[in-house]
Every structure is written in C-alpha cells, then in structure tokens.
Amino acid sequence: MMKVAAAATSLSLVAAAPYTPPTYTTPSNLTHPGLDILAKRAGLLYFGTAIDNVVLNNTAYVSIAHNVSEFGQATPSNGQKWMYIEPQQNVFNYSMADAIMKPAKEAGQMRRCHTFAWHSQLPDWVNNGNWTKETLTAVLENHIKNEAQYFKDDCYAWDVVNEAFEDDGSLRNSIWLQVMGPEYIELAFKWARQYTGNGTRLYYNDYGIERVNNKSLAVAEMAKDFIARDIPIDGVGLQAHFTVGRAPTYDEVSAALTLFDDLKLETALTELDVRILLPDSPEKQELQAEVYTNATKACVDVAECVGVTVWDFWDPVSWVPESFPGYGNACLLDDDLQRKPAYYAIEKMLDEVAKK
Ligand code: G3I
After folding, report:
1. Which of ligand 1's atoms lies nearest the C-alpha of 115?
2. Residues in the chain with pLDDT < 70?
3. What is the dihedral of CA 223, 227, 233, 239, to 10 degrees?
4. What is the pLDDT of residues 254-285, one digit of tens each?
5. What is the pLDDT of residue 356?
6. Keyword Signal on this protein (predicted)?
7. Residue 63 DSSP one-character state
C-alpha cells in the first residue's frame, strides 16, 4: 500500500475542552498542530494511540485521547481481548470495547482492533477447558466470527494473531499450539478474512521483531509461506516496546521493516513506548526522545510502513511499571499531561520531513 499523499491540512486545532494543547512554535512558526496532522504531512496514514478503559473517567485524558489532530488512530488497549469480549463461552460483551471504539469513530479516528488470538488475557473457561483439536477449533472460529461481525467495517486493521513466536523463532507453546497445532494461525487469518468487513487489513503483531533477528526472520518466513499459499495476510505489526539504553537504532528498525516491505506487506509500529530505568532524568528523557524519533522516522522512510501507534500517551496509564518494576515514564506525556522532550522531538522531525 503506497503511503497516503500528505494532504495539505488546515491548521485548525481540534482541542476539546478542557484540554488545550500548549502553544509550541515549530521551526516554521506554526503553532502546535498535532502529531497526526504532522504525520500525515510527512506521508504516514496516521499517528495514533492506545486508549485504556481504566481512565475514561478522566476528562483531560479522554479529550487528548480522542483529539484527532493529535491522534488520528486509536486502539483499545484491552477492551477487545478475549477475557472481556467472551467472558463465558458463547456469551459476548462489547461494552469495554465500545467505550473506546464509539468515541473514536465519532472523533473521526481510524481504529486498529486488538486482538483475536493471543495466549494472554484469556478467560478461565478457555485456559482450563478440556479441549480436543475439534472443539477448540470451533471455539476459536466462533470467537473470531462473533467479534469480527460485531465490529465489521469499524476496524482499519485487526491484530489477528498476537505474539505467536518465541525469541528464537520457534512457535510459542500456547494453548492454541498445544491443542490445534501451528495451523491455528492460518485458520485465524482465514476466518478473519471471512468475517471482517471488506478492506479490513489483517495483521500479525509481535514484539522483539524490530531488528533483523531469529524472531523477525521467522515471522517473515511465515508471511512468505502464507502469501505463497494464498492465506490472507496484509500486514505485520512491530509492537516497538523499547528501553532507553537498549533500543534498536534507526537503521535496525528500518532493516526489520524492510523484511516485510520486500514481501509487499504493510507494516506499522503498533505499540510504541520507551521505558526508562527510574529515577528519571533530563538526560534519560533526551535519550528517550532519540529512540521515539528514530523509530518514527524509520516508519516514515520505509515505503509500506503506514503508521505509528504509541501504547498509550500518559505515563500513569502505562503497562510498564506493573510489568517491569523499576521502569516507567515510557509515554509522551508526563503525570501532569505535559509533553516531554520525546513529543517535541517527534513533532520537530515530522515537521522537517514535511517541509523537504
Ligand atoms: O480488568 C481488571 C480489573 O477488573 C481490575 O480491577 C484491575 C485491578 O488491577 O485489573 C484489571 O485488569 C488489568 C488489565 O490490564 C485491564 O486494565 C490487568 O491487571 C493488567 O495486567 C492488564 O494489563 C494489560 C496487559 O496487556 C496484559 O498483558 C495492559 O493494560 C495492556 O496495555 C497490555 O497490552 C499488551 C498488548 O495487548 C500486547 N502487547 C504487549 C502489551 C503490553 O503487555
């Protein structure tokens, strides 16, 4: 898919009360237009964010989350996961997802939908079931069918299968692999194509594939095999969960994106954040800014990379502290919803690209 031509965009600032972005003069003396506006000018389809249900009572957070000039795309962080969508067998609940999907649609934001088949956040009835290959296959198809048909044309893309590989390139020994064998992946993609709306992009999504390594090469081999066998797949999502001091360089991210570019697959950075080993410091924030900018620039420069989604934009909501004790401050806005150096560095880079 060719990048969307960076359309001329008005500088009209969409700032829903009570959140009013601080004025920031970019090199061309433009007031702060918003990251999505600048990303589109730089040739990306969107700059987006994950949005979590846990803070939907915070009006300042919500007004930024659905500010389409800032984030032209939204991903429910949790609401579309199996444990919330189908908490009991064949009982479906879309309320958590709708709390994000509906306002996003009303705000004019594209929606990435996340995720059909994953080893995590499964309800107990799936994890503890006494399944045969036949019965679990029917359960997986029924789940995908119901969720895909509910969201139908609402998703620009679905993360059909999430995190199916290990770092060494082998397949993760999930319940899906144990009971159904490796074909659960292609079956999930076939059902996703069958039951989602026309034009929905079907992505494989994973972390640790932002360098050329055993894992990204294994994903590329799977994608190549799917293409050869007409198994529907449209894109690969590189989650891009990075750590200051250990993050891939611009060249490394570009090379990983190019693995899939060469297969004419769409790519996207789907969960970008850059965690810091606390305590934080101005120096660490400058390094964080460099990592965010390098990753975003790599997506801008690689033809089939269509967009960047940050895995939430507000530090207090980030998954990082719970998962990586001692790390935090991974997002673009700090506890006070103030932009950090990383925000301004991305903004400056996108503005400069657009002016070339
Ligand atoms: O739903 C319960 C709620 O009922 C309870 O009151 C609350 C108490 O803490 O916990 C809630 O569940 C939490 C859930 O997020 C919803 O907020 C879980 O404890 C928490 O572990 C879970 O974390 C999520 C994590 O996936 C689970 O692995 C993060 O928010 C979410 O950002 C993160 O996202 C994943 C992507 O889906 C896939 N890629 C990796 C990324 C980071 O793990």
Report:
1. 37
2. 1-30
3. 20
4. 999 999 999 999 999 999 999 999 999 999 99
5. 86
6. yes
7. H
DSSP-assigned beta bridge partners for residue 76: 51
User: DSSP assignment of 94-115, as one string?
Assistant: -HHHHHHHHHHHHTT-EEEEEE
What is the 3-state secondary structure of 248-303? CCHHHHHHHHHHHHCCCCEEEEEEEEEEEECCCCHHHHHHHHHHHHHHHHHHHHCC
Could you tell me which residues come within 8 angstroms of residue 153 by beta carbon, excluding any fewer than 6 positions away? 197, 198, 199, 200
Query: Tokens in use for 33?
Result: 């237009």
Burial level of 62, CB count in 10 A (0-12/13-18/19+)? middle
User: Measured from the CA of 322, which atom of ligand 1 is nearest?
Assistant: 21
Question: What pLDDT, on a 0 to 100 scale, did the predictor assign at position 3?
Answer: 64
For residue 59, count other CB atoms closer than 10 A to its CB.
12
Cα 55 to chain centroid distance, Å, stands at: 19
Nearest CA to ligand 1 atom 7: 54
* pLDDT value of residue 118: 98
Name the DSSP letter for residue 22. P
Q: Is 186 a catalytic residue?
A: no
Class of domain 35-354: alpha beta
| pLDDT the model gives residue 18 | 45
Distance 120 CA to ligand 1 centre (A): 10
Return the domain boundaries, the chain: 35-354
Model confidence, pTM = 0.92
CB–CB of 270/205 below 8 Å?
A: yes
